[in-house]
Amino acid sequence: MTMAPEAPRIVIIGAGFGGLAAAAGLANSGLPVTVIDKTNYNLFVPLLYQVATAELAPSDIAEPIRKILHRHPNIDVLLAEVTAIDTTNRMVSLRGGKIIPYDRLIIGTGSQYNYFGHDRWATVAPGLKTIEDARRIRSRLLMTFELAEMTDDAERQAALMTTIIVGGGPTGVELAGSIAELARFTLARDFRHVRPELAKIILVEAAPRLLGGFHPRLSDYAERRLKKLGVTVLLGQKVEDLRANGAMIVGQFMPAGTLIWAAGVRASPAADWLGIPTDGSGRIPVNADLSVKGLDSVYALGDTALCLDANGVPLPALGQVAKQQGMYLGRALGRHLRDGRPMRPFRFRNRGNAGIIGRNAAFFDFDRWRLTGFLAWILWALVHVWGLVGFEKRTLVTMQWLWRYVSYQRGSRLITHQDAPPEALGADAAPVSQHRVKDTRA
């Protein structure tokens, strides 16, 4: 479709689930679209924990944005970082000085981990939002076993092979189960002087149960399955401090070689660009058509937006929410700008929420009915494979999962990140940079 010279210019900031879906909804619309992201790839975040636990390589769950959108001549892609938005003159400023004008602006910049006022904890307990986060966790996790192999001190060995995960939501539960299986089924074959199957995984949750957003029956199931894998589950216990070599939990210090943060998220600082008030999680209030309240021609979606459902309850920060919002906004905005059709209110349709605990163990919540066990595990796998971009990625991940199921092996056990401080692992620990192996698939 040929673009008219006077066609309204649409700028999308962020190429995550929401931004990419919005771009797809505007594909071949005859409207000029510019997608801006500070990375050149779209990341399938729900499987990021599998990169962190050596189940998949980064390239398995990421796809170049240009490759995804190259068939649509009306869409431009810019690898750049946004520094400011001028809503009066309708301009987006990029790092380096470039200015991008817009007629309609869509913001889908996602979220980041919330350390609840303890930002210094981020250096010792990384969250899991980016490929770099996953590499850092993977390298630190694997390095602790290497260091344990080199010491004869049983107490230090035990500390090094202890992992503490803060936060009992889906990410924390999935990480705990995956790390337990990594140690017991994979690493147990590879070491001679330590027993990785005796590694201690501690999952700490301040609330009285795991998976607070799910039905209590699923919370109980997740707790039982994790305990069966040997995970220590601490409920109703608050982390008081995180240090390089462990965590202070309810007055008791627990030494650990690896600390991981999975205790909560807040929206990206996109609201600072707009100069508008947000809710307690930094989300931008939007109207029923996802337009930002109080601003003209600006829209927000996904984790960035405070969008209420029909009952006045904020929609959760889930990939399916962002995807549905993006597809709705792309199509509705395209019809509105081309044909003048009014934009109907966005309506979220819950297609179920799922998580995996370990081999043959998963949970699926469809609101009215719930599924656990092997069937939920199969359904989880199908949903997540289908969510990957492109036939190649779906086939590759499926084959790797099948091989891992049969062999109990994981192929991405590479220490590639230099951020594993010696003080976190023991006084005589060598920096990871001395043990680097090139990750040819990263």
Brief characterization of the structure:
The protein has 442 residues and is an alpha/beta fold. The chain contains 12 helices and 24 strands. Helix 1 packs parallel to helix 9, helix 4 packs antiparallel against helix 5 and helix 10 packs antiparallel against helix 11.
Summary keywords:
single chain, 442 residues, alpha/beta, FAD/NAD(P)-binding domain, 5-stranded parallel beta sheet, 24 strands, globular, disordered C terminus
Overview of the structural elements:
- The protein has 442 residues and is α/β, with parallel strands linked by helices.
- The chain folds into two domains: 10-113 and 265-339, FAD/NAD(P)-binding domain (3-Layer(bba) Sandwich), CATH 3.50.50; 119-263 and 412-435, 3-Layer(bba) Sandwich (FAD/NAD(P)-binding domain).
- Helices cover 31% and strands 21% of the residues.
- The chain is built from twelve helices and 24 strands.
- Strands 5-2-1-9-20 form a five-stranded parallel β-sheet. A four-stranded parallel β-sheet has the order 13-12-11-17. The chain has a three-stranded antiparallel β-sheet with strand order 6-7-8.
- Helix 4 (131-149) packs antiparallel against helix 5 (154-160).
- The longest helix has 21 residues, at 319-339.
- Residues 419-424 and 427-442 have low confidence and may be disordered.
